[in-house]
Amino acid sequence: MTSPDNPILPVRSAAEMLAAVPHLVGFHPTNSIVLIAIAGTKVALVTRGDLPAGVDSIAQALPALAQADATHVVIAAYGPEDLATPAVDAARAVLTVAGLQVYDALRVTDGRYWSYLCDNPTCCSPEGTPYDAVTSPVSVRAVVSGSSPFPDRASLAASIAPADGALRAAMDEATARARRRLADLPASLSAIEAEGRAALDAATNRYRGGQRCTDDEVAWLTTLLTTIAVRDHAWLTASGDERHLDLWRDLTRRADPDLVAAPASLLAFTAWLQGNGALADIAAHRALEADPNYGMALLVLDGLRAGIPPSVLEDWQSWAAQETDHP
Known about the structure:
Elements: H1 14-25, E1 32-39, E2 42-50, H2 55-59, H3 62-67, E3 72-78, H4 81-97, E4 101-109, E5 112-115, E6 129-130, H5 137-144, H6 153-158, H7 165-183, H8 189-208, H9 215-224, H10 228-236, H11 242-254, H12 261-274, H13 277-290, H14 295-305, H15 316-323
Helix pairs in contact: 1-5, 7-9, 8-9, 8-10, 8-11, 11-12, 12-13, 12-14, 13-14
């Protein structure tokens, strides 16, 4: 689920709304049902699920829609008619029972869309209405503002997939050196915390300068992040800044599989702060693949499922401080 706190993409038609969707969810949806929640005149929340989708799966979005104070919802089902139509019917039923007005319900297939609520051939042709999600003025404005949606969800997931080949071999060697270095440190939490803060500061400065960490720097920081006090310091200094996102995205890719829970959770939280719910969800699940009970990742997922936008946290550092000291 994505909570678009910042992007302003004025839309005046169904075609422009569909052109905005990839920039709101982070990728071009395929075989998906998307609910675009509107509060007043603004998009308050965007949720996406896989097709096929029934009443039960769509009803899971209701708490998030309530949290967003949604009054209207646009339904967009991306896929063939035999999958899209039952999902749209289910969504309309769920939303109606919940007291939400369905502003429009669309099927999107092969660059065309059909409205389930309009049968006027003048504006809604039986052959579908063509639209272009790439060259639309809405999309162009989003790209100029820095948005660059992935071709699909799999491509987004692949962007933080574990490194392999020669890079994986190099990181294995670097991680072995980092573990030996950690064993040589004084056996005190304060010494590890000091090393962790120094490593985090150095890494943050590198990415702010448009550089990236060496293999040994990545291995050292990800090894130190297994100490919860170090992880918590990184958490409390996180921001939605693009360079922070670059840092944790890179470390999530390059970290040893046994060490990925902390950097992946930090990536999830940073993406959530930025309003990038799709990346936050994928990153949190990467963390849970390494450690199914990793508390920080579970916390981010809880926030995403509830549809809680970062803007509702007036002082999220204080809030996060209450949740630290737990894996």
